[in-house]
Amino acid sequence: MKIHAKAPNRIDLSGGTLDIYPLYVFLDGGYTLNAAIDLYSEVTLTPIPEDHFYFYSEDLDLKRDLSREELQAGLPQGDFFQLLVEIVRFYEPATGLKISTHNQAPKGSGLGASSALLIALSGALNQYNRSYMDGETLIHYGADLEARSLGIPTGKQDYYAALYGGINAIHFGLNGITHENLELTPSFIEKLNQSLVISFTGQSHFSGTNNWNMLKAFIEDQGKTREHLHAIRQTSERMLDALESADMEHLVQLLDEEWKNRKALAEGVSTPQIDAMILAAKEQGAWASKICGAGGGGCMLTLCPAELKPAVEKALQENGATIMKQQIAPLGLQVNVISD
């Protein structure tokens, strides 16, 4: 028997960073809006008779073999396999396992691949243990495990896209977290897909660093951080209305507005290379662009008229970007038991 699980990565439309505690408390709540895309993080579990755990990252060709005693001791912070080991240690499988992982996204993509992998591994172990925790419980444990592994506060938006798929509105506030899968018309989702360009800038990023800098800047009232985060909160509320009313014109205006406020949050959110790519896309008719995740590199989301998509993609490529042919994924976490 094997267990295979896959979870989609995401593009964030508006309100990233607002999902970090206690930032959304300071802001009196706020929406994060994102969309799952058909780019996946995958896990395969193979039970083995010996009490040993074999970790293998297929995309990076990295391996780590641990006895149960070594698994229980954990790995040092910064080790590539640390978070995966934390998850397996938490779920305490009764037997040894071979754990193979694969991220389709490039490393440092800003598409939430590590969180999607966490959800995929949690879902697979949940199935293997037959504990059948619900999705919100998987998110709760996963977020705490990732924060402990990184040693800094983390957001939760990535887990919702990975678990539920589709286009998500997640509200973070004093009364807790509420999640809604937006039921948009098929014609509007198709219009979004036809207008959507996702590209990898070639620069990897580490979301924890930028998010931590933004949180510290808010607490210490540095520059105009508070002003720009309040503006992003308002943008997200208006973007939710634009999505629900299928108003593409308003949506792209708000995407541009979100990016202008986001890149002003902290030094390094944008770079000269990113600015050049966004300008090149705009010169070929793109409506709006923004970096996914905390910024500083990774992947970029661009919306443009469908008929101008080839020209926009070419302009991005000429400025060093790699075009990724992804679309919105309607399904979230999928777990399958494969018989021998």
TrEMBL record:
Pfam families per UniProt: GHMP_kinases_C (PF08544), GHMP_kinases_N (PF00288)
Similarity remark: Belongs to the GHMP kinase family.
Species assigned in the record: bacterium (Candidatus Blackallbacteria) CG17_big_fil_post_rev_8_21_14_2_50_48_46
Cross-referenced InterPro entries: GHMP_Kinase-Related, GHMP_kinase_C_dom, GHMP_kinase_C_sf, GHMP_kinase_N_dom, HddA/FKP, Heptose_7-P_kinase, Ribosomal_Su5_D2-typ_SF
Domain GHMP kinase N-terminal: 87-166
Molecular function (Gene Ontology), one example: fucokinase activity
GO biological process: GDP-L-fucose salvage
Keyword Kinase: yes
Domain of life where this protein originates: Bacteria
Keyword annotations: ATP-binding, Kinase, Nucleotide-binding, Transferase
Name of the protein in question: GHMP kinase
Gene3D superfamilies per the UniProt record, alphabetical: 3.30.230.120
The UniProt record lists the keyword Cell cycle: no
Record-annotated GHMP kinase C-terminal domain positions: 239-320
Chain segments annotated as coiled-coil in the UniProt record: none
